[in-house]
Amino acid sequence: MRNTRIDLAPDVREKIVTLLNARLADAIDLKLQAKQAHWNVKGPNFIAIHELFDAIAGRVDAQVDELAERVTALGGVAEGTLQAVSTKTTLPAYPVTLGGGQHVARLADAIAVYGKAARAAIDEAAGLGDADTADLFTGISRAMDKDLWFLEAHLEGRD
What are the Cα distances from residue 118, in Å, to 73, 112, 135, 156? Predict the structure, then answer.
C-alpha cells in the first residue's frame, strides 16, 4: 500500500482495499456476463432484452471504474486482470451455451449475488469507518436492485 493523506488508518485502508477488490472481481465478471447475454440472446422481445443487457453492462462498467479508482485512491492496487478476476469472483459461472430466454434468468441470478455482496459491503465499510466506500456500495446496490427488477419483469409469468 502506498501512503496517502486520506485520514483512514493504514490497516483500515488495507481491509477496505481487500473488500473493494473482491467486489471489483464480481463487477468485471458481471459486466462480461451481461455482454455474453447481450450478444447471444434470441427470441421474443429480442431487441428490448438485447438493449437492456447492453445498458446493464454499461452501468456495471461504470461501477468497475469507480471500484478500481477507490482502491487506488486508498493506496492500493486495483486487481482487474483476467487471472485475478477468475480466482476472486463470487458469481456463479455463466454458461456459454444457453437458450435465448435463459439469459434473462441467469443474468438475474448473477445480479442478485452481486447486489447481495454490495449490501454486505455497505455494512463492512461502514463498520470500518469508511462512509465514502459505504456510499459507493450503496449506489451499486441501488442500481443492481433496479436492474434486477427490470430482469424479473421479463420473467413474470414464465414460472
Answer: 19, 10, 10, 25
Residue 159 has pLDDT above 70, yes or no: no
pLDDT tens digits, one per residue of 44-77: 889 999 999 999 999 999 999 999 999 999 999 9
Cell numbers placing 46: 429480442
- CA pair distance 94, 107, nearest whole angstrom: 8
Q: How high is the pLDDT of residue 156?
A: 85
Domain range summary for the chain, segments of one domain joined by +: 10-155
Give the residue carrying C-alpha cell 433496479.
146
Of 75, 80, 30, whose CA–CA distance to 57 is shortest?
A: 30
The residue with cell 456510499 is 135
> What is the identity of the amino acid at 94?
Y
Distance CA 59, CA 144 (A): 9
| pLDDT at 135 (0 to 100) | 98
- Give Cα 61 to chain centroid, integer Å: 8
Q: Which residue's C-alpha cell is 444457453?
A: 98
Residues 10-155: name the CATH superfamily: Ferritin, core subunit, four-helix bundle (1.20.1260.10)
**Predicted pLDDT at 153:** 94
